[in-house]
Amino acid sequence: xxxxTVVDIRSAVSGDAEQLLVLRRTLFAETSLLLWExxxxxxxxxxxxxxxxxxxxxxxxxxxxxxxxxxxxGFLAAIGGERNRLKHSAxxxxxxxxEHWSQGVASRMLSQGIAWAPGVGIKRMELTVHxxxxxxxxxxxxxxxxxxxxxxRASNPYWWDFTR
Length: 164
What we know:
Elements: E1 8-11, H1 17-30, H2 45-56, E2 62-67, E3 72-80, E4 89-96, H3 105-116, E5 124-130, H4 134-142, E6 146-151, E7 159-163
Parallel strand pairs: 4-5
Antiparallel strand pairs: 1-2, 2-3, 3-4, 5-7, 6-7
């Protein structure tokens, strides 16, 4: 991909449902480092639209899209807690198409998400990342995330949980 490709970052709107669906299907197919496996992601355009609306309707949640001229190339979801005791916390999910790695897209989305958080009362951001995902681990550490713990799963035994 051309290093000069302009990628705009903005909040997702209902009309982005098809682009988000295509993006997420592509992401889950091109890497095994995300939590979803391709076969288990069976969302429809309508469901993606509902997902976007649900997030947009919650003050403590955010869905950003990274948009190149012809398609969505990345997303960041910050899902705020629903219970009163968890409303200060958000769970993060971040993905960028491989062809756009090392172009600052993930950094820009994460920076926007972190800047947004205090204004809506988010004091804690959490995520899970596979320990072998060196790019992601480096990115999260660069933004001040700390390892909260590690978990084990038979098929992918090394996951780190980060918090900021």
